[in-house]
Amino acid sequence: MTTETQFARFDSLPLDSGETLRDLQVAYETYGRLNESRTNAILVLHAFTGDAHAAGIDHDGKPGWWDNMIGPGKAFDTERHFIICTNVLGGCRGTTGPSSDEPGAGRPYGLRFPGITISDMVRLQKLLVDHLGIPRLLAVSGGSMGGMQALEWAVAYPESVEACIPIASTARHSAQQIAFNETGRQAIMMDPDFAGGDYYGGKLPARGLSVARMVGHITYMSDESMREKFGRRLRNREEFSYAFEVDFEVESYLRYRGSQFVGRFDANSYLYITKAMDYFDLSADAPSLAASLERATSRFLVISFTSDWLYPSYQSQEIVNALRSRNHDVTYCELSSNYGHDAFLVDVGEQTEIVKGFLGRCQREFRGGVACK
Questions:
Q1: For the CA atoms of the chain, what is the radius of gyration?
Q2: Residue 133: HSE in the Cβ half-sphere, 13 Å Cα cutoff
Q3: Is residue 372 part of a domain?
Q4: I need a labelling partner for 181 at 20 to 30 A (CA). Which of 32, 36, 132, 334 fits?
Q5: In what order do the strands lie in the sheet with 6-14?
Q6: Residue 14 to residue 7: CA distance in whole angstroms
Q7: In the chain, helix, strand, coil percent, each to 5?
Q8: d(Cα 48, Cα 4) in Å, to the nearest integer?
Q9: Do residues 37 and 146 both lie within one domain?
Q10: Span 226-243, mean pLDDT?
Q11: Domain housing 24
Q12: What is the pLDDT of residues 177-207, one digit of tens each?
């Protein structure tokens, strides 16, 4: 299936910072058909460097980032559900972000773009869902940063969400997670070509962005998956170079990943989105995480993976314990995988069966006029 990216425009969006964005755009794709009762819509939310192209094949022949989970007979079954995926606010793949032209300025925002939060991203998504005429989503789901957005949806718009499926995610970043993000940001801002964020039309801060991606990619894998994939194998040589060249396969892989990333992602978007993740704290405006989640009315399915050390299972378990303390309907599954944080993208067999079963039960109740809780 060939997919088309669509666009919606909105006059304004108030932000948590107190500023207001004017004349902004959101990119999105849809898969499947919305039923007459408008009860089969699912909003899929992407991780940090994802975009609106979640499934199918685009005009460049590229599959969607969750194509193994979205489609006929898959976890998010397009024969039963209408799937929506948007590019997040602050992104660089069609939704307004720092690389977009600043209204009236005749140049991209750069670092003049206002600071954003996960709740700002969700607020823009809510505008889109309202624009599409969907009063209540059957589910919101996403992995990693997508899971943060799903949780924010459940708390900020409880009347609009039947079910919430955060995968390999967290209710707030730990100091270690913030530290990894700050290392990436510093790599970018210390690049001599960064030019205070005004590098558009000139030389990109490619070295800094590449290093940032290399650091990030290490956290997405596990020790075991890296050992299986690379070990200590040398790259196109039989002995060490005894110089700062590529000796090991893993060095070559990380350099490739870094250089590939530069061609598809904006360095300023990296800064803004990682900062939004660091700011996220679902319990910030409540006495506790449990008190914050008390506002939610959704049924929850929370999934984590044994080898994920970026968003370890204890963070998902904190969410589950908080929900159970308020008598919410929550199912928790810790899945065994060697793929680390990337498991939610690549190790989808068992994940598919769990999500399909959960959505099937929820949709039957929703169709019968019964809330999922």
A1: 21
A2: 5
A3: no
A4: 334
A5: 6-14, 20-31, 82-86, 41-45, 139-143, 163-167, 299-305, 330-335
A6: 20
A7: 40, 20, 45
A8: 21
A9: yes
A10: 94
A11: 6-175+277-367
A12: 999 999 999 999 999 999 999 999 999 999 9
Active site residue 58: no
CATH of the domain at 261: 1.10.1740.110
Same structural domain, 240 and 103: no
The CA-CA-CA angle for residues 309, 311, 317, to 5°, reads: 110
Q: Which residues does residue 215 pair with via DSSP β-bridges, in sequence order?
A: none
Whether 194 contacts 159, CB under 8 Å: no
Query: How far is it, in rounded angstroms, from Cα 308 to Cα 337?
Result: 8
Residue 11 among the catalytic residues: no
Global model pTM greater than 0.85: yes
Residue at which a domain ends, from 275, 293, 322: 275
Specify whether 39 is located in the same domain as 154. yes
| 159 and 186 fall within a common domain | no
**pLDDT (tens digit per residue) in 23-53:** 999 999 999 999 999 999 999 999 999 999 9
> Using one digit for the tens of pLDDT, what is the confidence trace for 124-168?
999 999 999 999 999 999 999 999 999 999 999 999 999 999 999
Closest CA to 333 of 301, 310, 361: 301
Instruction: Out of 144, 222, 269, 292, pick the active-site residue.
Output: 144
Q: Is 341 a catalytic residue?
A: yes
Tokens of 295: 């506002």
> Which one of the listed residues 51, 77, 120, 308 is annotated catalytic?
308
**Angle subtended by helix axes 249-262 and 206-220, to nearest 10:** 120
Inform me whether the pLDDT recorded for 370 exceeds 60: no
Residue 126 belongs to a domain with what CATH number?
Answer: 3.40.50.1820
Measured CA to CA, the distance from residue 75 to residue 178 in angstroms comes to 31
pLDDT band for position 368 (cuts 50, 70, 90): very low
Phi-psi region of 264 (alpha: psi -120 to 50; beta: other; left: phi over 0): alpha
